[in-house]
Structure formats: structure tokens, C-alpha cells
User: What shape does this take?
Amino acid sequence: MVLALLAGVVLNVGLVVPRPVASAPAGVDDAVHLNQVQVIGSHNSYHLAASASETALRRQFIGAADDDLQYTHAPLDQQFSHQKVRQIELDLFADADGGRYATPLIRSATGGGPHDPAMEEPGTKVLHVQDVDYRSNCLSLVACLTTVKEWSDANPSHLPIAILLEFKDSPLVLGDFDFVEPEPFDAAAFQTVDDEIRGVFGEDSIISPDDLRGTHPTVEAGVLNNGWPTLAASRGQVIFLMDNGGGYRTTYLEGHPNLEGRPIFTNAGPGQPDAAFVKMNDAKTDAAAIADLVEAGYLVRTRADADTHEARAEDTTTREAALASGAQWVSTDYPVPEYAQAFGSDYVAEIPGGTVARCNPVNAPPECRDAPLDTIYSPAPRPVPTLPPTTVIAPPVPPTPPATPVAGTARFTG
Assistant: This one.
């Protein structure tokens, strides 16, 4: 509550305290819109690699597929300040009563001791895969958002930070293991997420579908007719995006067909009433389609790399396609070169020229200049990040023989 009051939400006395916003030169701030810049994002921004003992046990069952999980991230505020990250991704698990994810199976099996007591509290949790890949630099949605909010309040001139949310409720099936069954993301669970978002961020801090739609009948009409806010109008703010489509989008739209009152933009295609943001992760295949969407006025998130593959091979093909596509957010697991060094690789995904952001290569206006778009960056001490011994990145390890295949439908990526 204190944070909300300080952020400029309505006080008990009925006054509104304006949020101080420093800005770049007026020529940039007034001429450039949110959708006309490009920044780097981090994939599964909360993720910490498993301990050595957890990694060894997991590899006995999934073998080399465990390589896909060998990435780790610094705390969110460090990503913003020291790694030029302006888009993050959080994987969400509903936990209405608390405690559902408090005793990860792999932690118990390797003698890891009790998990953080915060996992016993009710509220949406942030982790990758229940029971087997659970380590996070912020354990709940509220904790993650509070870190973002505190950093934002201390650095109000930042470009808008995009927060991509992936809703997870799929069961994990692998052999005869008794994995926890996730709660479904039904209407009540989505409402909890909305409430948790608004419990941290005031309405003046969120770029919402209502803001974009304005007087138009649909969100898409607002995009195509009014466009996105200028940097002058959006610095210091956040924007929430849904990673999922399908039934998750359908449920979120129930009772809110044009996202009325919702804080999260859905992942919707052109022609749909809620279309404003589109996730297109395969930049190599979809670069031209991404560029067309950006030119039309939509926001797009794509990826520079996935599952450690590009980093291990020092393959920059996808990264270059992603940057050239004009996608506003190019997500990576390697925003600094130190992260890939565990693989003997120099791979990194950065904005060309080393700036925090750049003028979008597809749709930026002539007045745009890269350097003043966002200047909040200071190199972190090397190496980064500083992590507990149980969460260091392990170098590639061959499967422990004999690794007996186990039947199942486990999905460990995303």
C-alpha cells in the first residue's frame, strides 16, 4: 500500500500525487511512439539454473534435454540497470490457498531442505516447471512486480517495461512420479492475477487496453486509428502482455470482449477485436510477417535464441533476423556475454550499437535518435550475476549412463 501511495495513486485525502517523469529531448519524446523503438527482453526472466545435484538427477531421466534448462538470470532490477533489458517474461501458476508448490519433488529427492516459506502463502507463483525446475529469483507475481515497481519508481525516465505473462496449468507426466497437479487458470484465477497487478501498480503506471481503445469500439480499432502513446506520455510505465493464446485468451475475454477493465493485452491476430499485441517467436521463418505487423501498428515479441541452442553453437542467424524484423521486443537468455561463456561461447543478444534501445528499423520516424531513448544503464561488476552456489550455471554434462528412457509427455521449455 505504501508503494502504491508513493507512486501517485489516489490518497486517502482524495488527492493525486503526480509521478515525476524525466524525459529525453522533446524532439524524441514527442515524435517517437512506444511501437517505434526496439529493445532487448529476457526469456523466463525469473529463472535460476538447478543445483548440481538436481541437475544430475534430472539428467538421469531426460538426458541431454536437460541442456535446454541450463540458463539463469540476475534479479529483475539488475537486468534493467546493468543488462539493458526492457521486457521480461514471467511464468505463472495459480495457488489460491498457498503451499501447492512449496515442496518441489526434486528438491526433496536431493536433500535440498525446506523451500522458501513464502511458497506457503496464497497467491500466484512464478516458476518454470512444477517439481523439477522451480528455482526463481522472485517467487510470486507480487514479489516480481514489486521489484519492477521499486526500480521504476527510482528510475522514472525509463522506456515502458513490457511484462509478458505465460499462464501454466498443464500436468507433468513422466513415468510413475507423483507430480503436483496445477490449479487451472479459470476466471477466478485470472481475476486474482488482475487484482495482484493492480495491487502493485496504480492505473497511472499501466498502459492498458482501455487506454489504447479510447472511444473506439475495439482495441484493434484503437491501434489502427490512434496508434500507441508517445514516449513523452509513456515513460516510467509498464505494459502487460499475455503469452498464451487459445483457451487462455478465450477465458480472459469472457465478460470483457474488448478487454474492458482488463490490465493485460491478449495475444491476438489481426482482425480480432482484441488485437494489439502478437507473439511470433520464430524470427527466421516469420521475419517478413513480423515486419508487416510492425508497419501496420501492432506490437510484436520475438526471440533471438531458445533452449540454449544458439548460444552453444554461437549461431547468430535467429538473432539477426529478429533484430531486422522490427519486433519491438527481442527476447534472449543471453543479454550479456558472460552467460554463454559456460559453453565456451561468445554469444550475446544486444541492441546494435550498444544502446539500451534503438529506433525501430521498420517504422521509426526521421526525428528518432538511438542514444536519448533510454540512458539508464551502468555496467555490472564482472562476473554477473552473483548467485548462490546452488544456482550456478553448470557446463554441458553428458547424460549419466545408463539413462533409461521414461515414457511421458513432459514439456520442459517455454
